[in-house]
Design brief:
single chain; alpha/beta; Rossmann fold; two-stranded antiparallel ribbon; elongated
């Protein structure tokens, strides 16, 4: 079986993360999304090249600026025409990785935590290949790590690999947690998380983030998690072993509780204007990244 889809172990290492750079670069071209040009002075943004790209030449409208009049086309057609430009904006991406204890589980190919880490790596490497700034925020060993702009990629790879260690299961929060990231503005923010619950403080943090950035929430679920046969299951890490008993009643109650929280989470994303995308853990990370590229989330 493809080791990318089903790694030999859910615990990735630094080399596993670095190897994803070639995959990110080979994803292909992103969908072209035109952005309406903003009024002069409304927002100061970084630009590459000349800063403006010609979008189209069309008949003049009274709201158009006279300095953008295309006099050659106007003289040739006898009808006033204007040039419409779009800003060639420098993309800045911020990847947030937030895992729950339940992420360190999988029924078929790999753990949810592993798949989300692979996606974080592909997204970050993709930005690097596109010569874009990319930041990374994660929580490991009960501490937040905030990197506004990744420069040491070997350290990033080691840091990301650390999040996949099974010992992190007991250290991850049961609901979504992120620090106040209000200093980040004008970013394409991609939240990679299996969380479907958050308290009011973190809702406020996410709302503030969505006000000043384009935010997407990408989640990974295991569709087979509620189809496990009845019996005893053992969850272990390097130090402890816990046994979980699954019965029809427990499975039904857990499925109902999950569906209720998922519906509330979906409503919250809509309310905050956050794009929400859910993928199955048994889908290849390449396939998921390709879909994100098709949606225009990746560049």
């Amino acid at each position: 079986m493809d080791t990318l889809l089903s790694p030999n172990t859910p615990e990735l290492n630094q080399d596993d993360i670095i190897e994803l750079a070639a995959i990110a670069k080979a994803l292909g071209k992103a969908r072209s999304i035109r952005r309406a040009r903003m009024m002069s002075g409304s927002i100061v943004s970084k630009k590459r090249g000349h800063g403006l790209e010609l979008h189209e030449i069309r008949p003049y409208d009274v709201s158009d600026e006279a300095r953008h009049m295309d006099w050659r086309v106007t003289a040739r057609t006898g009808i006033a025409h204007t040039r419409v430009y779009t800003e060639d904006v420098e993309h800045r991406t911020l990847v947030l990785l937030s895992l729950s204890p339940d992420a360190y589980f999988g029924t078929q190919t790999t753990f949810i935590s592993t798949r989300l880490a692979q996606l974080a790596a592909i997204i970050a490497w993709r930005s690097y290949a596109q010569r874009e700034n990319v930041g990374f925020v994660s929580q490991t060993d009960n501490e937040f790590s905030i990197t506004p702009n990744i420069r040491d990629w070997r350290f990033f790879s080691e840091q990301l690999a650390q999040t996949t260690l099974i010992k992190q299961r007991t250290l991850q929060p049961t609901s979504y947690e992120m620090p106040n990231l209000s200093r980040f503005k004008g970013y394409s923010v991609i939240v990679l998380s299996d969380h479907i619950a958050m308290d009011e403080i973190n809702k406020a943090h996410l709302q503030q983030l969505a006000q000043h950035n384009r935010v997407h929430w990408v989640s990974v679920e295991d569709a087979s998690a509620f189809s496990l046969p009845n019996g005893h299951y053992q969850f272990a890490n390097q130090e402890t072993k816990n046994t979980l008993h699954i019965s029809n009643a427990q499975r039904s109650a857990a499925k109902q509780h999950f569906a209720q929280l998922a519906q509330q989470h979906d409503s919250l994303m809509t309310q905050l204007g956050v794009g929400y995308y859910v993928f199955d853990v048994n889908h290849s990370p390449i396939a998921v990244a390709s879909e994100l590229l098709a949606y225009g989330i990746l560049h």
